Structure formats: C-alpha cells, structure tokens
C-alpha cells in the first residue's frame, strides 16, 4: 500500500478539512430504502420518507428539521472555492464545460447492474469456498445457515459486479469516478481520466482502475454509497478528514477497496447469511458491513494514533472480525448512528460527545465472539 505523504499540499476538501468542525452526524439504516422506492435520480421519494419516519415515530416536521440541520452542518464545513488545477485543464488551457458528466447516485448505479446482462462475467465468479473432509462436515453441522434461495440471484449479482473491471466505454463507470472526485474535492467540472490528481482522494498512481483489479467496479460502488448517502455523510466526512491528517494520513479510496475485499470474502464464506436471511436482502447487508468495518477502522485509527505502517495488522484484524463476528460490526454501526442521531435531537447538547461504543480490541477480545451470523 502506498503511503501518502504528510508533507504534500492537498486542496481543502469539500468534506470539512476545517480543524474547528469536529461534529459527527448520521441517520437511518440503509436497508429501509428498497428497490422501486427511489425516483429517477436515485433519491428516496417524499412519500416513502414520510412513511419511513412515521414508522419510526418521527413526524414529518421533525424529519424536515433533521434534514435541514444535516444540510446546514454540511454547508458550514470550510470549503475551497473550486478552481482550475493546471493538470485538469483542457488542451487549450480551459476545462471543457460542454462535456461535463452528470452526477450519479448509488441507486442509479445499482439499478444499472440490476438490469444489465451479466452473462459474460458470471463464469468468472466464485460465490463460495470449497470445504472438504472434516471441515465440510463441521460446517454442515455447526456452520451458518444457507442463504435463502430467493436471495441467491442478488448475491450472485454482487459477485458479478466485483468481477466487472473498470471500462472506459461504460458511462456508469466513468460517471461514478467523476462523481466521487467532484463530490470529495468540491470541483465543479470533470477531471482528466488519468493523472496525479487521483491521489487527492486516496488512489495510488495515475489510474484508479489499477487499484480496483481485485474487487472490480464493486470497489467504486461501495465508495460512492458511503460518500453520497445522506445518512452517512458526516461519518464519511470525518473519516476523510482523518485520512488527510498530517501524521495519521492514509489513502481513503485504497483503504475502502481493501474493506470491499474483506466484505466480499465474508459473503463468500457465508458469514453474513443469517443477517441477509433476516432482512431478506443482500446488498443492504453488504453495504452496512462495509461501512461498519470503515467505522471500526476509524475508531481504532483515531484513538490509538495509528499511522500507515499499522494498516496491515489493522486490516487483518478487521478481516478476522468480519468473518467471526459480523453481527458485532453491524451492531456497532447501528449504535453509532443512533447515538449521532440522538445528539441532534431537540434539547440535546450542541456539542456531541464522541461516541465510543466499542473498539476493534473489544470485538477481538470476545464480545459475542464466535456467535453465528
């Protein structure tokens, strides 16, 4: 893994590089938004928002108040006035605004794959690991439950997305990259497909596609989900800010790609079957596991003063927890988001105390360790 340079100068991100803004924020679990409940732009429609919040005991006025507060908090973050980096200029010295790509939502990208013919990559996927002898017998008797038959197609789609390598001819792929770059840097125009500017959001080298080889387009899809979902934007912003820290910096996107790999392996080894069966979803559970792992990495990295040289052991610990105790990862995320939401409730202190529900070490020490997922 490439170590980012602490001495380099990065543009002030749209995501709050300000040292004065240390608030966290969050919202609802991701699995409430089902397929067919989004509008043409991939956003949850108004009626569904009303329904969801009524079910949670939250009135429409409270929901509007929370949304307005989240937007206001985001707008208060110190930003850089988008300028024109020389390496992003067109051949004549100015950006080509006539060919700017449209922003892409996670739901739009997901729906693209839900309707796409994936027969060309299906033979390449591996949805399970082969167990023989006593290991197979033990897994049969004591292992996690089998995934419900109606969820197999959704699971296979996830592996097909991971087997789909980045393609410059796929507009969804290119738009995803551009959406991520513009959203995270505050730029209002598309950047060049190749160049050192990708280092600004945590890729290594001049071509993000080279970092995606092990997880394919799923690596980008997970990052897009994390940085664009309104419920997660405060958490994603705080992690991104930490990734730019003078001494604790790490490559944000590259770290996320490693977490996608861990999430895929947990799915392949049936570790999250129980949760998928319970929710009757696979994509939402995989997304939550991904974000939950990034949250645990953030908690350990920040509080234990980790640096890039610690990344290997930390990722190994996260992989162990994802496979042996994924339920703990999901509960930790749920508790974190609930705590963040409570801190924004009327009458709560303006300055939210930093939430430390559990650390990576607590999970490793056996809090619910070995509990079937």
From TrEMBL:
Bias (Basic and acidic residues): 46-56
Pfam family name, one: ELMO_CED12
Lineage: Eukaryota, Metazoa, Spiralia, Lophotrochozoa, Brachiopoda
Name of the protein: ELMO domain-containing protein 3-like isoform X1
Organism in which the protein naturally occurs: Lingula anatina (Brachiopod)
PANTHER family with a match to the protein in the record: ELMO DOMAIN-CONTAINING PROTEIN 3, ENGULFMENT AND CELL MOTILITY
InterPro entries in alphabetical order: ELMO_dom (IPR006816), ELMO_domain-containing (IPR050868)
PROSITE patterns: ELMO
Region Disordered: start-end pairs: 1-66, 341-373
Domain ELMO: 172-326
């Amino acid at each position: 893994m490439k170590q980012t340079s602490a001495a380099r100068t990065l543009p002030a991100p749209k995501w709050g590089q300000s040292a004065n803004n240390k608030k966290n924020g969050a919202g609802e679990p991701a699995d409430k938004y089902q397929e067919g409940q989004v509008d043409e732009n991939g956003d949850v429609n108004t009626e569904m928002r009303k329904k969801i919040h009524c079910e949670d005991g939250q009135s429409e006025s409270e929901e509007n108040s929370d949304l307005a507060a989240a937007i206001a908090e985001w707008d208060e973050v110190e930003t850089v006035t988008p300028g024109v980096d020389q390496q992003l200029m067109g051949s004549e010295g100015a950006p080509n605004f006539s060919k700017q790509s449209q922003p892409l939502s996670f739901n739009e990208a997901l729906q693209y794959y839900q309707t796409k013919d994936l027969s060309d990559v299906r033979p390449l996927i591996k949805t399970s690991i082969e167990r023989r002898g006593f290991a197979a017998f033990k897994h049969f008797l004591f292992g996690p439950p089998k995934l419900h038959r109606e969820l197999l197609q959704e699971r296979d789609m996830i592996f097909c997305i991971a087997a789909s390598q980045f393609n410059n001819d796929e507009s969804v792929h290119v738009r995803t990259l551009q959406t991520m770059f513009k959203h995270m840097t505050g730029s209002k125009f598309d950047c060049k497909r190749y160049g050192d500017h990708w280092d600004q959001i945590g890729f290594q080298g001049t071509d993000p596609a080279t970092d995606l080889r092990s997880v394919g387009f799923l690596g980008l899809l997970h990052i897009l989900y994390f940085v664009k979902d309104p419920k997660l934007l405060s958490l994603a912003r705080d992690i991104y800010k930490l990734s730019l820290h003078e001494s604790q910096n790490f490559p944000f996107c590259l770290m996320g790609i490693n977490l996608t790999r861990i999430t895929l392996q947990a799915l392949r080894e049936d570790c999250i079957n129980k949760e998928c069966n319970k929710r009757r979803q696979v994509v939402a559970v995989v997304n939550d596991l991904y974000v939950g792992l990034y949250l645990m990495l953030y908690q350990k990295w920040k509080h234990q003063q980790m640096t890039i040289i610690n990344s290997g052991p930390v990722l190994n610990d996260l992989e162990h927890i994802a496979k042996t105790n994924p339920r703990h990862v999901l509960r930790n995320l749920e508790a974190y988001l609930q705590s963040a939401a409570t801190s924004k409730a009327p009458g709560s202190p303006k300055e939210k105390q930093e939430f430390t529900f559990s650390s990576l070490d607590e999970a490793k020490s056996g809090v619910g360790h070995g509990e079937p997922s």
